[in-house]
Amino acid sequence: MDVVEVAADRADQLVPLVSAWRRLVLGDDEPACTDEEAARWFAPRPGRSRRALLATGTDGAAIGYARAHLRTDRPSPVFVPELYVAPTARRQGVGRALVRALSATGRDAGAPMLVLRQDDADPGAAAFADAIGTTRGFRGLQNRCHTADLDVALLDSWVQRARERAAGWSLVGWVGRCPDHLFDAFVAVQSAMHDAPVPVVATVGRSGVELREAEAVDAALGVDHWVLAARNDATGELGGFTELLFEPDQPWLGHQGDTAVVPAHRQLGLGRWLKAAMARRVLSERPGVTQLETNTAMDNPPMRAINEAMGFRVAVVWQDHELALL
């Protein structure tokens, strides 16, 4: 068995395994990965690097892979959102070989540990994590909602109720680059994420530099990034925001980014207003989007309640496993 790093120009080697992993986690109806999507995954990102490892058997056939996120601007855990071994190659040390290779990558980057994210419903994954000595960390929900199942009357009631409770507030939105006249307020409202339960690998609250860098990456990759924010009409302060991203390789899916409300304004219905208004916009402007996706911490009851009321259902429960570098 060999484990080698795969670069963007060989990304097509990962496609069958990534597709198999998706079917295992999300079901047989989940669309397959494409060569273009696999290559796009490696696109340059300021302060970050993405690595992919491929395990092959003695006959040269691909039998496992792992994809990892690393920060290059400061020490941070190596985040491994995907590690998959083909069923016929399990219990042969493939997973351990991938983890050892990831550990070597982490040491080179000055990372303090690995964070391996796995499907909590997979007993084999849990047994593997226990066998290599991990400890359990963040636990989160990946939720999906069919747009056809959205209750438009409910969404409209949330909008109306928020307008009554949040007198003096209005919604402002943009696509892509935040307008200059709103930028300082948008940087400030990132503080709403500071008390949110998030993974150890997450960035909580982004600086102005990081926001502009992220906007540039989205533009380069052809990602449509919608932002909607609640603004105090008298002061110009932004009290909350929500984001939705549409990637060119998955035109049927809307990815929910951050949604947060500043603590001082959390009793006005701003969160429901933002989520409802964004969903209504998708229905109006993106008829080709058939599903929405959002990730929520297990221990975030307020946001879970909003998502469940909208019609989101749990697709996967993710368990983060933290591991000292081998």
Folded structure, characterized:
The chain is α+β, with helices and mostly antiparallel strands and 326 residues long. It is built from nine helices and twelve strands. It folds into two domains: 2-112, Gcn5-related N-acetyltransferase (GNAT) (Aminopeptidase, 3-Layer(aba) Sandwich); 144-318, Gcn5-related N-acetyltransferase (GNAT) (Aminopeptidase, 3-Layer(aba) Sandwich). The protein has a twelve-stranded mixed β-sheet, with helices on both faces. α5 (152-165) crosses α8 (270-285).
What's the topology here?
Blueprint: E1 2-5, H1 15-26, H2 35-40, E2 48-56, E3 62-71, E4 78-85, H3 94-109, E5 114-119, H4 123-131, E6 135-146, H5 152-165, E7 169-175, H6 180-189, H7 208-221, E8 224-232, E9 238-246, E10 253-261, H8 270-285, E11 291-297, H9 301-310, E12 313-323
Helix pairs in contact: 5-8
